[in-house]
């Protein structure tokens, strides 16, 4: 369990979802011992019902032991999630190995291939593709009608569920299912703070705010900065957000480690200038 700290008046812990009640009891113990009173829950890793059950259990146990209400920071994939890869079996990838990204199972007969359902022409020869949190970095060496030939730049474990991104942004699935799940969770859990992941423009934030129309409910809207597109549009994103979160891991992958400090400092200075909180 890793403790993460926001501004002093709002310390919080990250909610680790799991099927074991002992995991949630440990979280409650850590919340009490650390004097934290907010829990952050990332909703991309489990089902709607698992999230509701876990959050309500932790809230109730915290209330029982402290007689205080536990605040909730809900981290949602809005307005898009990462497109994720599919393979039959996990396999170890070695630096320099050829990897194919294909749109159909029978297109390429190489053992090391990834099946996707996006347009491969989105990429260019020489462009880097990041799988997961850069567990594997691929460089595009050839582009076919419905496949990419790539070479691995590092060793890593290739497995299903890894997200796909490039420096141009995230490869995104349809937003319909994402919106449905997020709206239902917000309706039921009513978090005090909502973190919007994968924000690229101010329109992403505005669209969410237009959807979130409730009486007597006005949560903090925090935009997560984690890609090059967000840095390009940082002024407008800060203007329409209540607060900003810099996702340094994803941002470093997306803009390049050599550009991380500049991107972070730019965001921090803009937030100070506009009097917006940033973590």
UniProtKB/TrEMBL annotation:
<keyword id="KW-0808">Transferase</keyword>
<dbReference type="GO" id="GO:0016301">
    <property type="term" value="F:kinase activity"/>
</dbReference>
<comment type="pathway">
    <text>Carbohydrate degradation; glycolysis; pyruvate from D-glyceraldehyde 3-phosphate: step 5/5.</text>
</comment>
<dbReference type="InterPro" id="IPR001697">
    <property type="entry name" value="Pyr_Knase"/>
</dbReference>
<dbReference type="InterPro" id="IPR011037">
    <property type="entry name" value="Pyrv_Knase-like_insert_dom_sf"/>
</dbReference>
<keyword id="KW-0324">Glycolysis</keyword>
<dbReference type="Pfam" id="PF00224">
    <property type="entry name" value="PK"/>
</dbReference>
<dbReference type="GO" id="GO:0005524">
    <property type="term" value="F:ATP binding"/>
</dbReference>
<dbReference type="InterPro" id="IPR040442">
    <property type="entry name" value="Pyrv_kinase-like_dom_sf"/>
</dbReference>
<dbReference type="GO" id="GO:0030955">
    <property type="term" value="F:potassium ion binding"/>
</dbReference>
<keyword id="KW-0479">Metal-binding</keyword>
<comment type="similarity">
    <text>Belongs to the pyruvate kinase family.</text>
</comment>
<keyword id="KW-0067">ATP-binding</keyword>
<feature type="domain" description="Pyruvate kinase barrel">
    <location>
        <begin position="27"/>
        <end position="276"/>
    </location>
</feature>
<dbReference type="GO" id="GO:0000287">
    <property type="term" value="F:magnesium ion binding"/>
</dbReference>
<keyword id="KW-0460">Magnesium</keyword>
<dbReference type="InterPro" id="IPR015793">
    <property type="entry name" value="Pyrv_Knase_brl"/>
</dbReference>
<dbReference type="InterPro" id="IPR015806">
    <property type="entry name" value="Pyrv_Knase_insert_dom_sf"/>
</dbReference>
<dbReference type="InterPro" id="IPR015813">
    <property type="entry name" value="Pyrv/PenolPyrv_kinase-like_dom"/>
</dbReference>
<keyword id="KW-0547">Nucleotide-binding</keyword>
<dbReference type="GO" id="GO:0004743">
    <property type="term" value="F:pyruvate kinase activity"/>
</dbReference>
<keyword id="KW-0670">Pyruvate</keyword>
<protein>
    <recommendedName>
        <fullName>Pyruvate kinase</fullName>
        <ecNumber>2.7.1.40</ecNumber>
    </recommendedName>
</protein>
<keyword id="KW-0418">Kinase</keyword>
